[in-house]
Amino acid sequence: MTSIRSATEGELPAAARVLAEAFECYPWTRWAIPADGYSRRLLELQSLYLSYALDEGVVLVDEQLGGVIALLPPTAAPPSEEFQERVAQLHGDRLTVVGEVRLPPSPEGYWTLETLGVRPDRQGAGLGGALVRAGLDIASKSTLHGVALETSDERNVRLYERVGFAVTAVTTIDRGPVVYSMVCEGTEKP
Predict the structure, then answer these.
(1) CATH of 4-184, one of 3.60.20.10, 3.50.50.60, 3.40.50.150, 3.40.630.30
(2) 113-172 pLDDT per residue, tens
(3) Separation between Cα atoms, residue 119 and residue 93, nearest integer Å
(4) Is 92 helix (H, G, I), strand (E, B) or coil?
(5) Which residues, including other chains, have CB under 8 Å from residue 75's CB and lie 6 or more apart?
(6) Taking the model in full, what pTM does it have?
């Protein structure tokens, strides 16, 4: 049985490294982040997003820090101007094309599963599914609505479908990846 718990601030650097490893070949990040300094930019972006998620939402890890998930509630405050400026700098010359992407908006009142990553040597053993189920459990305690996400890796679609998500839209980005928008409907609270 995998033990999933809330991450601490001190664990964020290790959690960001897990995400950077997991996203090294991910279609969206490969398209959205410049090749020049890609790994450094990816790690810093993951660090920024995890810090924001820890402040505004939920970051969960397993005991061995082999996987991490971050979710934001619909009430999350927008990121600071400094945060947004740094993200823009890290996207460099890709910022314009990333900014032009039009994906369907998440349903009103839904949590968003912002990121999920498992170290490559731990993938395929059920850790990703355990992290998602733990995140869904937390989200279900605060809303009747569900959780929305986007993924640009078709293998992830199957993982998310196994835990209750369904594809709601497929967006093909010109000279970019295919993005799957997915939703897991909430259940009534007792």
Answers:
(1) 3.40.630.30
(2) 999 999 998 888 889 999 999 999 999 888 668 999 999 999 999 999 999 999 999 999
(3) 29
(4) helix
(5) none
(6) 0.93
